[in-house]
Amino acid sequence: MAVTTATSRNTRDNTIVLVGHGMVGQRFLEALADRGVTERARVVVLCEEPRPAYDRVHLTSYFSEGASPEDLSMVEDGFMARHGIELHVGDPAVAVDRESCTVTARSGLTVGYDTLVLATGSYPFVPPVPGKDADGCFVYRTIEDLLAIEAYAQGVSSGAVVGGGLLGLEAAGALRGLGLDTHVVEFAPRLMPVQVDEGGGQALRRSVEGLGVTVHTGVGTQEIAVGDDGRVSGMALSDGSVLPTGMVVFSAGVRPRDDLARDCGLPVGERGGIVVDEQCRTQDPAVFAIGECALASDGRVYGLVAPGNEMAETAARTIAGDAGSFTGADLSTKLKLLGVDVASFGDAHGTTDGCLDVRYSDARSGIYRKLVVGSDGTLLGGILVGDVESYGVLRPLTGSVPPVAPEHLVLPAGAGAPVTLGPTALPDEAVICSCNNVTKGAIRGAVTDHDCTSVPDVKKCTKAGSSCGSCVKVLGQLVTAELEAGGVEVDKGLCPHFAQTRAELYEIVLALRISSYRELLDAHGREGARGTDGCEVCKPAVASILASLAATVGASVHVLDGEQAALQDTNDHFLANMQKNGSYSIVPRIPGGEITPERLIVIGEVARDFGLYTKITGGQRIDLFGARVEQLPLIWTRLVDAGFESGHAYGKALRTVKSCVGQTWCRYGVQDSVRMAIDLELRYRGLRSPHKLKSAVSGCARECAEAQSKDFGVIATANGWNLYVGGNGGATPRHADLLAQDLSDAELVRLIDRFLMFYIRTAEPLERTSVWLQRIAGGLDHVRDVVVHDSLGICDELEALMAAHVAGYRDEWADTINDPERLSRFVSFVNAPDTPDPTVRFVPERGQIKPEPILLALTETVTA
Amino acid sequence: MTATTDLSSPATALRGTVELRTADGWLAVCSAEELLPGRGVAALLPDGRQAALFLDRSGRLYAIGNVDPFTGAGVLSHGLLGTVQDRTYVASPLLKQRFDLADGRCLDDDTVAVASYPVRVEPARA
Ligand SMILES: Cc1cc2nc3c(=O)[nH]c(=O)nc-3n(C[C@H](O)[C@H](O)[C@H](O)COP(=O)(O)OP(=O)(O)OC[C@H]3O[C@@H](n4cnc5c(N)ncnc54)[C@H](O)[C@@H]3O)c2cc1C
Ligand code: SF4
């Protein structure tokens, strides 16, 4: 049998040319690869932008989350090479000749095609107002636009966005992120006129204004005022007023880029868009058009990714010879604009005959919900502003009669709403992940037929939740429900020794005033576990609960006392962090990152005298590596003498409160961020918690301290402080949520006290605040209810617990070096305390030490 | 071969000298009061090897090699004790593999084991 090498390029006589490598273009390539088409055909891509496809939807995260252009890339490393795709970056197509079936690029490159796919997207529409081409006028669509805006913003203090739709608000978010005094000018009487109605617009406006963006609705832009230097100086509005502004971003809608098709004689719509049929084919059967440049068979141009992705799939399927069609899509969207959640789905504006609205509006908290219901009770669509928790369930229910009355679906939990509708109520056909078109049935199938037992498994298996991520929560609920239904007992117990969760154990310890691990295990452990040694999971978890509640339940405050000593993780046991070769590292506390030259010198001297490797940490402190266990007390004696305290880098406890220099030095600062950071760090130092706690304080909205990536982050405003919670960096970064705004110093501290104690009380071991906030029922809203509105009536208790912690704080290292009993533990060998451990060895590198690489012998022979 | 010494008296009442048997015979290591139930100490053996000694909650003594075979670091004595199906183990503080204190076998990898040593307490001579 002749072996044909399917991957050999030469044998691939069929050529597919893709013009435009945007979001939809990349999706199309992936779909081709999935179907094996890239094995059989030569694929050539002409990409106009100077970089391969990237995530346009998350463009603003460049400003708000510090994402780099590389972070936004949508092309997996090695994708093009693996599939033999020829990508020409920075070389747009300039002409298509349908006679000879060739495409010519700007560089002069001419490629013959068997199939041509146009995915050229849109261009931003700039209204023809005088002055629109002045220096300081921008559009907002590409990374290049964004870099240009960023560079120009350095020299101005205010910016105005023309257009208050989805993209306009994104652009406003970017300008805010750059620290500009930001205005949005919208011609329609409300923001996001396409997605939301009057009530939703009001709620949205209040929230957006609360974030410091000035909104002008019902006015048009008449002229851009230009100074003598040719730069933008302001904007004349249709109501006769003039808005002074240093720069303008046009975001007044987009138009399909259909010129290539137009020029080669393919039909385009009256208002633009390349006409395609249900297979996304143009009038010429060899030419397809997909994404924002296409006018779909239902007569619409779709400006969202999800429908574009469906078109990409359809075209790829058709080219592969499989059946597929795109007949139109639902314009459901869920967005977070400037931190405000907005969702609309189905017939959001109630255009269906005889339909009725059910609304709930709470102006105080900026929440608006509207459902559109047909005369027979069918859910037709809706709008959610401020709280979009229910979107994941409501959107898939659209088109069916919900199992509970619509008014119960819009009322907030606890306000007479008898049920919260879970995803288990959804039919199997309900689409859970709209980006990737995955139904509830497919997700259940992944669990039952493909043995997926976790959300990551299901994501991998079905692609659900792998794009915008808005369905991940529902996904988790479905996976758990399906596992439970399948008889897989989802044991929520902490470990083989306790059937309770950590939160339950916390309640037991607090209620019964239990002060030792043994007492807890012997009375409340699982049947066979009582009287045993427990394990490395439950011992530190219970130790942490006892430490958090020590002052209240009468346990010892020092983690090395009595039984507590045997429960601590190794790091806690030696009050230092064990490193790979068994040596330890030391991090003295430097509150707020502020340090005097004298203290810096002490750290330097200690490091020099003990030969330690020094490194500046991300938390604005200094880490000293390479200490032997017997050196720890000597090193700390020096540090304590110089006024340093334990930095608890070894504990599941408060680590640092970073700060920027703030008002004292920075020309933008509006509050003293350093002082606040020091106050907070000193208040919460030593607080043991389910996982480490990180914090930061920024002196203004420019956010140099990166507070929004912390467990609790504080950002100064002109009126006080905004408190953000649940942020995270690391492997699963998460942007923190705004918990409360414009707090006074005292209000801020009180709220953090409550928040931290509520977290400590209810989180699972090793569960960061970010994960906890997403896991606990009701999420952020519930936490806000509890800690801000005291809905459980426990705030007094939470505050008292924190007060007890603060009053009982003592420096663990100072206490240790003054106690011979505790010190006796810091020896290398019990029978040779002065002999250093010979396995701890170092070699030099870049003028410091590093652990000597170890050759492993995996089995030692058994002696005796 | 068992590496444990059963002591019915509660751990806190342990008195005397802890001894460990090597190829050269019994070696006095420390006094029993120096051991804390649930934790370990390291001992240096005459041939340069290291042992980790542990006392569990019910007063049993154990000794195994101290060097973690997965990292080469002498750290097992710093690990936390645990019980699983009546076996007492120590979890390495570095990568958390568990070692059976009775025979030194790694519970997470059948092909790996550390040494194990018989231990006893010699009553203090008055
Ligand atoms: C700031 C912002 C926020 C957004 N937020 C959302 C959101 O939250 N949800 C949502 O669903 N959608 C959102 N969108 C819309 C979404 O980005 C688009 O729907 C999507 O990018 C469309 O993909 P596309 O491939 O059709 O077009 P594009 O991604 O624009 O890609 C088209 C590419 O083709 C290139 N091109 C054009 N002509 C040629 C040529 N002649 N030769 C070669 N290359 C050419 C262009 O340079 C471009 O790179 C947002 C858009 C922006 C700008
Ligand atoms: S350093 Fe602080 S005050 Fe200055 S711009 Fe950055 S966040 Fe604002």
From TrEMBL, chain A:
It catalyses: hydrogen sulfide + 6 oxidized [2Fe-2S]-[ferredoxin] + 3 H2O = sulfite + 6 reduced [2Fe-2S]-[ferredoxin] + 7 H(+). Residues 431-476 form the BFD-like [2Fe-2S]-binding domain. Residues 16-299 form the FAD/NAD(P)-binding domain. Siroheme binds at C704. Pathway: Nitrogen metabolism; nitrate reduction (assimilation). Residues 579-639 form the Nitrite/Sulfite reductase ferredoxin-like domain. GO terms for biological process: nitrate assimilation. It is an enzyme of class 1 (oxidoreductase). Residues 332-391 form the NADH-rubredoxin oxidoreductase C-terminal domain. Its EC number is 1.8.7.1. Residues 651-787 form the Nitrite/sulphite reductase 4Fe-4S domain. Its cofactor is FAD; siroheme; [2Fe-2S] cluster; [4Fe-4S] cluster. Keywords: 2Fe-2S, 4Fe-4S, FAD, Flavoprotein, Heme, Iron, Iron-sulfur, Metal-binding, Nitrate assimilation, Oxidoreductase, Thioether bond. Belongs to the nitrite and sulfite reductase 4Fe-4S domain family. NCBIfam families: nitri_red_nirB, PRK14989.1. This is assimilatory sulfite reductase (ferredoxin). It comes from Actinacidiphila cocklensis.
TrEMBL record, chain B:
One of its GO terms (biological process) is nitrate assimilation. It comes from the Bacteria. The keyword Cytoplasm does not apply. The keyword NADP does not apply. Its EC number is 1.7.1.4. Residues 27-126 form the Rieske domain. Keywords: 2Fe-2S, Iron, Iron-sulfur, Metal-binding, Nitrate assimilation, Oxidoreductase. SUPFAM superfamilies: ISP domain (SSF50022). Coiled coil: none annotated. GO terms for molecular function: 2 iron, 2 sulfur cluster binding; metal ion binding; monooxygenase activity; nitrite reductase [NAD(P)H] activity; oxidoreductase activity, acting on paired donors, with incorporation or reduction of molecular oxygen. This is Nitrite reductase (NAD(P)H) small subunit. It comes from Actinacidiphila cocklensis. The lineage of its organism: Bacteria, Bacillati, Actinomycetota, Actinomycetes, Kitasatosporales.
